């Protein structure tokens, strides 16, 4: 990676900073609720950890793969089709992986929780 690519990668991570902070806050919150609902908290941490990994991994992929495809494309005629196909495939993989993470998070929302009975005064 040259300095331009590193700068673009750093900029991409800065753009994703709100999502990064939200995922980290969710993980911290799940840890604080561990004693009350350990199974739910574990599933939430797994889902948010997966989404955090997704954020880091696909930020790199979207910065590296298109440049690599552009360099390897031979003629200008095929250039547009190859780039379109590359972004289509990257989008399908990225959104499919995100759907898995959000599916696990959604499963945690509807998991059966055992709560302590509320004592009435």
Describe this structure in words.
The protein is mainly alpha-helical and 121 residues long. It has one domain. The protein contains four helices and no strands. It has helices at 3-15, 17-32, 38-72, 76-109. The protein is elongated. The N and C termini lie far apart (66 Å). The relative contact order is 0.13.
Mean pLDDT: 88
Tally of alpha and pi helices: 4
SSE string, helix = H, strand = E?
A: HHHH
What is the gyration radius calculated from CA atoms?
20 Å
Given as residue ranges, the uncertain stretches (5+ residues, pLDDT < 50) are: none
Shape: elongated
The percentage helix is over 70%
- The assembly state of the depicted protein chains is single chain
Indicate the proportion of strand residues.
under 5%
Sheet having the most strands: none
Assign the structural class, choosing from mainly alpha, mainly beta, alpha/beta, alpha+beta, or little secondary structure.
mainly alpha
- Kindly, what is the distance between the CA atoms of the first and last residues, rounded to a whole number of angstroms? 66 Å
| Whole-number tally of structural domains | 1
Report the count of strand segments. Answer: 0
């Amino acid at each position: 990676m040259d300095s331009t690519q590193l700068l673009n990668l750093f900029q991409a991570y800065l753009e994703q900073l709100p999502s990064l902070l939200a995922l980290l806050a969710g993980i911290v919150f799940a840890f604080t609720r561990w004693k009350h609902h350990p199974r739910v908290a574990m599933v939430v941490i797994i889902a948010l950890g997966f989404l955090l990994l997704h954020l880091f991994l696909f930020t790199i992929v979207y910065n590296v793969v298109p440049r690599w495809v552009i360099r390897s494309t031979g003629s200008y005629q095929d250039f547009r089709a190859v780039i379109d196909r590359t972004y289509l495939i990257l989008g399908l993989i990225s959104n499919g992986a995100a759907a898995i993470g959000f599916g696990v998070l959604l499963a945690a929302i509807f998991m059966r929780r055992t709560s302590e009975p509320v004592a009435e005064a």
